[in-house]
Amino acid sequence: MADFEVSATFARVYDAVDDSVIDLLDAALLRVVGEPGSGWARQARVMGDFDWAWKVTIEAKDRTFAIYWTQNEDGVVQFVALVERR
């Protein structure tokens, strides 16, 4: 399993997630950290103005979460953003 880090932006949204979906979200995060090279973890690649990230989409109850992450040269998974849509 790879080491991981979370950005302040990611942590702010994660900390606000309610208990009804946290288990699904945690399972997805562990799957990315456990298998960062898998097709599931690399569902989509998105480009921004300055960099790129992988995107994983999770359907949870009445909302959808998008997990944006990268992996540095040392193999550390970096969760850079978490977006919640209802």
Overview of the structural elements:
- The structure is a single chain.
- The chain has 86 residues and is an alpha+beta fold.
- It is built from two helices and five strands, in the order E-H-H-E-E-E-E.
- It has helices at 8-16, 19-34; strands spanning 4-6, 44-47, 52-60, 63-71, 77-85.
- Strand 2 and strand 3 (52-60) form a beta hairpin.
- The radius of gyration is 12 Å and the shape is globular.
- It starts with a strand and ends with a strand.
Topology:
Layout: E1 4-6, H1 8-16, H2 19-34, E2 44-47, E3 52-60, E4 63-71, E5 77-85
In spatial order, strands of the major sheet run: 1-5-4-3-2
Give the count of helical stretches: 2
What is the rounded Rg? 12 Å
Strand content: 35-45%
For this structure, the quaternary state is single chain
**SS-based structural class?**
alpha+beta
Q: What would the average pLDDT be, to the nearest integer?
A: 93
Give the overall silhouette: globular
How many strands, what sense, and barrel or not for the largest sheet?
Answer: 5 strands, mixed
> N- to C-terminal separation?
31 Å
Write down how many β-strands occur, each being a DSSP E stretch of 2 or more residues.
Answer: 5
The amount of helix comes to: 25-40%
Q: Could you state the order of secondary-structure elements as H and E?
A: EHHEEEE
Query: Spans of 5+ residues with little confidence (pLDDT < 50)?
Result: none
